[in-house]
Design brief:
The protein has 2 domains: about 100 residues, Urease, subunit C, domain 1, CATH 2.30.40.10; about 290 residues, Metal-dependent hydrolases (TIM Barrel), CATH 3.20.20.140. Helices cover about 40% and strands about 25% of the residues. It has 16 helices and 18 strands. The longest helix has 18 residues.
Amino acid sequence: MPVTKADLIVKADYVLKMDTDLTLIRNGAIAVRDNKIASVGPARDVAGEYASDTIIGGAGKVAFPGLVNTHTHAAMVYFRGLADDLPLKVWLEEYIWPAEEKWLSPGFVGDAVELACLEMLKAGITTFADMYFFSDSGARAAKKTGMRAVMGAGVVDFPTATGKNADDYLSNAERFILAWKGDALITPSVADHSAYACSPDTLRKSKELAEKHAVLLQVHLSETEWEVSEILRRYGRRPVAHLDSLGLLSENLVAAHCVWIDDEEISILADRKVGVSHCIESNLKLASGIAPVVKMLKAGVKVTFGTDGAASNNDLNILSEMSTAAKIHKTVSGDPTAVDAKQALLMATRWGAETLGLGNITGSLEEGKVADIVLADLNKPHLVPLYDIYSHIVYSMNPSDIETVLVDGKVVLDGGRLTTANETEVLHKAAEWGKKIKEGDSIL
């Protein structure tokens, strides 16, 4: 049988497919051809089908699907450390929103998203969902670095640098959707900030826009106790019921946080097949609370991981989100088996892709899916000896262990270095923006 030429072949001691059977292949290989996974299996079997002049990885490596960050505000990396140790409402209204009003521009967002993508790729994240403004600039920056992104055009009811009212933001969102729909890496979406920053009319119009163009809708939901009491005061319903009454709850919605939800609301989210992005480290840092993830999982809610923005986290690292979440939920549930390592990695890969509507494209290492692959080095003091590879990835692995990252079949991180842009320039621009913000902001 003739051997087919592959663009490249990835080899590793461990290949974690993260498919429905959670297949683990020892001494495995992945053949990549025309940006897709052509074959994955034991190295000897793949070698019988495919050959390539480019072979990466090998002994002492693990290959797994690119991690998926289902909720962030990527451009907020430029506000990292701007205002810490504050409750969410104070942090947002007295520090972050004023800073955004002063500094947001297409140039700011484009430069900042480049830095965010650099940080995420170095941490093994190949896909992220974003909620922000100047979405065109963010999309261009993500595409330049070679990342896959679900970019949400931000919608609120009050004036910002990108609009005066909800109609402006919705018009911006539609233009953005029309400009980017069908792109190989960028998937446009509509991103409503919250039920307290968007009126019922705005939320309905956003839903209609998302349905019109068959795109995802994103929203912050029940992030704080204050939010729940405020929505109860305004509308006589808790946030989940409020959004349900407006017809927003569906598998087309990604709800970030869901910290302050009760058993009835969990049941509603499960019935409506809403995807939930769990942002444990941001929630902990802002003292927003701890989402009832174990209850959600038991009820059938698909829970995934998000970092939130770096202004409230303060990094973009899904490896640490997995580790923190698994440990926290063992403690709060009193069950050391809750959110085990396999479950956590599933939430960070295939489930994340499925929640973003990309499950048929990425999220697992299966033939026909695009080659979004992470290759990590296991020859590290904190990763030996090795008994359980899932345990090591979730509880022990660091971004510095990520060696090679492929997105859409292209090597975008090689030996820990970005191949698509100049890292030194990205860091220099970040330092220059930081200097301007520090010199021009009275709170610093």
